[in-house]
Design a protein that fits this description.
Number of helices of chain A: 5
Strand content of chain A: 15-25%
Largest sheet of chain A: 5 strands, parallel
Order of helices and strands of chain B: HEEHHHHEEEHHEHHEEHEEHHEEH
Distance between the termini of chain A: 13 Å
Number of strands of chain B: 12
Structural class of chain B: alpha+beta
CATH topology of chain A: Rossmann fold
Mean pLDDT of chain B: 85
Radius of gyration of chain A: 13 Å
Largest sheet of chain B: 5 strands, antiparallel
Low-confidence stretches of chain A: none
Helix content of chain B: 40-55%
Number of domains of chain A: 1
CATH architecture of chain A: 3-Layer(aba) Sandwich
Radius of gyration of chain B: 34 Å
Low-confidence stretches of chain B: 383-397
Number of helices of chain B: 13
Structural class of chain A: alpha/beta
Helix content of chain A: 40-55%
Oligomer: heterodimer
Distance between the termini of chain B: 102 Å
Chain lengths: ~120, ~400
């Protein structure tokens, strides 16, 4: 069982907690953040960097796009991979414009979520 | 002498009477016409306006007579910039001897702008242009109706986009929870387990259905707004078809449809995998819906520059009349009292296929099934479309 640290950034409590539960069930060290600023705080306080960040786009406070800008401005965080999670219709275009290589459109399939988490944590180790 | 001049004298009043009668007839036509009519002479100066033209422009004939018509009613563009007469299509009819027609905007005497539809025809006498007759219709009402219609369509598309986004959000937590619950129950040894799993499978299936309906609404809003974008990558269509058919296997089995796959040695191409999966899901969904209990054949055939994907069912088929309209938005080949659905599947499929530079065709004999064939160029024409400002705003939110 892996214990890779995965950060789940989503303002919707139910979605965030469900994803954190699903990843925890698979043995990941999954932590939720309610917006971009919360995610930056968690990463600042954590001993290790996440193996992957699942990032929602539309969030009150610091949005997904703002978070990505902040992440890229911080040399220590820049290497952390991000997968967008959003219900946005043109998510592919948004991912491309934000320079994010991967995205999952909501609603999310459990097996897709787990497979993505495993793939990124395997790449990291 | 009297013999020679007598008949002339007798004809003159008659001719005058006829001319007066003819003039009255012309006046009746021009005075009662709802079209504004102008005549310009060979120097593009106004020599005639009917009452409808006076009403339209706000000018009396005396105010316009002998002046360049363009300088009186067409001198400024709606943005305030001057409208040079050299660029005026109406004034072009005379020198080019060609009829000109189109939409433009005129300036009223009181300074307000109003949209018009015009036709300017050169008057040719003995092979020489001597002037121009101009017919003008006020299109304010039409433009207003058009503007309201466009606004209503944009509002509808915006609503569909927002509604489908909002509906997908709770569906995310719901479907993930159901899948987690299924995993949890599957691990419990209990006599009630099969029943609970059956109930859960039904719930999962229904959320999938809900998801697909929402997806349809979302896509129609994207297509209407011209924002359907392709994200092409190179892959083998065989893999996508196998995976999709496998993913839909429970649905096929439930409908009693055995799906037979026919795949070539390779089917590489550059396409948007997510969108093509959607095309197959829509065609497969129709095959199940209209041919339950019957086998479905999914075939991929490769040519040098093209790859064909076909879905054949043995269902109710499509009438010749329905074939012409099945790709329309909210259209369906059958009555809504017999079959549900939003009538978007083929519309979306066609839009996606055409965005790839391909086409979709159907062969069908009513009562004997239908075969939909998607023809895709191996290399899509699609280019990445830059995000609009509205997209960028949304990204930031």
């Amino acid at each position: 069982m892996t214990s890779a640290f995965i950060l789940v950034v989503d303002d919707d409590d139910d979605i965030r907690e469900t994803i954190v539960d699903a990843l925890s069930d698979e043995g990941f060290d999954a932590v939720g953040a309610s917006d971009g600023a919360d995610a930056l705080r968690i990463m600042g306080a954590a001993a290790i960097l996440p193996a992957l960040i699942f990032l929602d786009l539309m969030m009150p406070g610091m949005s997904g796009a703002d978070f990505l800008a902040a992440q890229r401005a911080a040399p220590a965080l820049i290497a952390v991979p991000v997968v967008l999670l959003s219900a946005s219709a043109d998510l592919g275009a948004k991912a491309a414009s934000l320079g994010v290589a991967e995205f999952i459109r909501k609603p999310i399939k459990l097996d897709v979520l787990i497979e993505t988490a495993k793939r990124f944590s395997a790449n990291r180790s | 002498m009297s013999d020679a001049t007598g008949p002339v004298r007798a004809e003159e009043p008659l001719r005058r009477l006829e001319e007066a009668e003819q003039r009255r007839l012309y006046e009746t036509v021009t005075d009662n016409a709802t079209l504004a009519l102008f005549i310009m002479d060979s120097r593009q100066r106004c020599v005639f306006m009917n009452p409808a033209a006076r009403k339209l422009t706000g000018f009396t004939f005396e105010e316009v007579q002998g002046r360049l018509l363009h300088e009186v009613i067409h001198h400024t563009r709606p943005d305030g910039a001057p409208y040079p007469v050299e660029e005026c299509p109406i004034d072009r009819a005379f020198p080019t001897r060609n009829q000109e027609s189109g939409d433009d905007v005129f300036v009223h005497k009181d300074g307000h702008f109003y949209p018009v539809a015009f036709t300017a025809s050169p008057i040719i006498e003995n092979g020489t242009p001597v002037g121009t007759v101009i017919e003008v219709r006020d299109t304010t009402l039409e433009k207003d109706v058009e503007r309201r219609l466009r606004a209503a369509l944009a509002a509808r598309d915006e609503f569909l986009s927002v509604a489908s986004h909002e509906l997908r959000t709770p569906l995310t937590a719901l479907s993930l929870q159901l899948e987690l619950l299924r995993k949890l129950i599957a691990g419990v040894a209990d006599g009630e387990k099969p029943k609970a799993l059956k109930n859960l499978d039904t719930a999962i299936r229904q959320t999938d259905r809900l998801e697909s309906l929402i997806e349809g609404l979302l896509n129609v809003s994207l297509i209407s707004a011209g924002r359907l974008q392709l994200h092409a990558s190179q892959f083998d269509l065989r893999g996508l078809v196998e995976e999709t058919v496998d993913r839909l296997s429970a649905l096929s089995a439930r409908a009693g449809c055995e799906v037979r796959l026919h795949l070539p040695a390779e089917a590489m191409g550059t396409w948007d995998s997510e969108r093509l999966e959607q095309v197959l899901v829509n065609l497969h969904g129709n095959a199940i819906k209209y041919g339950p209990g019957q086998p479905i054949e999914v075939t991929v055939a490769a040519e040098s520059d093209w790859v064909n994907l076909s879905v054949k069912d043995l269902g109710i088929g499509i009438s010749a009349e329905a074939k012409a309209r099945i790709y329309g938005r909210f259209e369906r080949a059958v009555s809504t009292s017999n079959y549900g659905g939003l009538g978007l599947g083929l519309f979306i499929a066609q839009q996606i296929v055409e965005a790839h530079g391909g086409n979709i065709e159907v062969e069908s004999v009513p009562g004997a099934g239908a075969t939909f064939t998607v023809r895709l160029p191996r290399k899509t024409h699609a280019t990445e479309v830059p995000l609009t400002a509205a997209d960028r705003d949304q990204v930031g939110r």
